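Section 5.1 Outputs to date
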Amino acid sequence: MSDEIPQLAREVFGDRAELAAAYHRSLATTAAERGFIGPKEVDRLWERHILNCAVIGEAFEDGIRIADIGSGAGLPGVPLAIARPDLKVTLIEPLLKRSTYLSEVKEELGLDNVTVVRGRAEEQQGGAFDAVTSRAVAPLGKLARWSLPLVHRGGAMVAMKGASVSEELERDAADIAAAGGADAEIFTVGKALEQPTTLIRIVRR
């Protein structure tokens, strides 16, 4: 594993690139040893995990409160918090081992804009956030039921999704509407990446 910081990471993270590199080292060692990151993923942490999560910062306004549900090893919440120190990011993770790791990362990197909460999304206070994000947590309909109650009316869920997101949107339209979702928009961020990140934004009406 190389400690060298890719040029693209320096562009995305700016003067916080060393913090991103420290998180990279933590994922490649501690998180991998604890089974949160698959062995095949270690060599592609920058491109496939850290950078493609950090660029979702392009989708958020300044200074807002964001929840990352099912945060796991901190993706996308930790790269987002490093790239955008103006955001207040709450990492919500139900599993004890993972939430413990997230607390360790917060302390080791000195991420003052991060809060770690052990629990499920559906147990959290409703309307407490401006936006909710997630990555590979659940199908879109279920994700809307978990995410939308956490944001105030007019807030939005902004979820990382794959190429089939438009099919998911069509399939789960009734569930999304029942959860109070409206004005769905699919878009990409991180145009400089080899594979830009696909997001879906759904507003809570």
